[in-house]
Here is the input.
Amino acid sequence: MVSRGLKRLYTFLMFLFIYAPIVVLIIFSFNNARTRGTWSGFTLKWYAELFRDKEVLTALYYTILVAILSAIISTIIGTIAAIGIYGMTKVRRKIILNLNYLPVLNPDIVTAVSLMTLFRFLRIEFGFITLLLSHITFCIPYVILSILPKLRQMNKHLAEAAMDLGATPFYALRKVIIPEIKPGIVTGALLAFTLSIDDFVISFFNKGPGVSNISITVYSMARRGINPVINALSALMFTGLIILLLIINSRSSKSIGERGDII
Amino acid sequence: MRMKWTSYPYILWMIIFIVVPLALILLYSFTVGEEGGITNLRFSLDNFRRFLDPKYLDVLWISINLALKSTLITMVLGYPLAMIIAKEKPKKRNVMILLLVIPMWMNFLLRTYAWLTLLGKNGFINYIITKLGFAPLNLIYNDRAVLLGMVYNFLPFMVLPIYSVLVKIDKSLIEAAEDLGANKFEVFSKVTFPLSIPGIITGITMVFMPAVSTFVISRLLGGGQYMLIGNLVEQQYLWVGDWHFGSAISIIMMAFILVTMAITAKFDNQKEGGGGLW
Here is the structure.
């Protein structure tokens, strides 16, 4: 029984360690005083300031825009690429997949500086375009990696059967292959979206003047020390995340009822 | 149906955005010359020679040292947690895993920033300490703060792979060991632990890699003067503008990480192939 209590205590302490910083951050986002030294009453002024802060709002705009665009583009390129890679001979497929793994395995900072070198070498001006291109580049490998297993699971002869019955290759792709691998495509797109929203390192090196994202804004603010506006931002992002999770959870528990699996 | 042509656009993309950039930093690392053009580059090993300066080797050593320490600490803290979670009933297990994953989905800069507000001079911990009547402590801008930030950020990366291996272990193996007279410790050291090694190895790579290449945690919790190898790359690229030296450091970092991963992968394969339990 002692060991049972010990286990509970340990689990409790670990989750305390994980959540305490976030909870303190959220509580102090309502603190009237600028520093942590004192609690001087409840206020919403940091939230108001957050929504008046031009820098934060532009960053938010670019974060979401880049995330949506890179998710869409990398999903399209990744899906058709995955179908092509699936049809390749073994040796070629291995080469392509190993190259595809490079951005996944390489430290972010190496991918970031290599892209930065490329853009400077090509004399492309740093800004929205470089940010978007770099995001698409690190998202595609993940899309491909989430679609390929679904292609392997698919019955190889389905598409052939469709074409034997008179479908054109494009029709077979649209009506047979795509529906079969759809779960993989959705997973890939969601993954690309979250990776893009969350990215800091690659964006930090490939942003341009006037174009940045939330992570970069937080970094440049935090470098100057504690700023209650970031507390408010964190609290909002955390709440947003919880709401999103609740929505996904209620949807997936519905689909468990219908289909019997989670994803 | 073979439609390999559909991969050609991506192959082109890969060549432009993955192969060429890496080739470029490789080229830059082995050359010196004026900024910009490719025509006036001269082959040279100066960039690598420069890295052998004790000043830079120290930075490499500190980075590796901190990354190893944080890997070890996450392992010691994470393994028991993974074990406790794996032994729970499925419903409770899923809730606990979800609780573990939620902070991972929060932007990791914000997670690091949260520690800044806790450890800072006017931070929450010092607030409590001074309320209790003690003098405020210097908690931030040192090795320990950076280490704490790494452990905090990367702990889930250690717990999740270990958990996913532990939860798949066939219960009958443990029961068999118990039937044959093994005590709790023996069951752990002879059955559970060896079976969980693939998870530990995945965890080690997932913690060590980002820890050794980070520059954010060291910058925010270590202060402006704090240098890890990631900070060195950032400094060379963004502030000093010496792309040749920056490329050389990146190549060293990349080589180091790829070799580490190859070694761990090999170790992993041997275990799986030679274990005889599968």
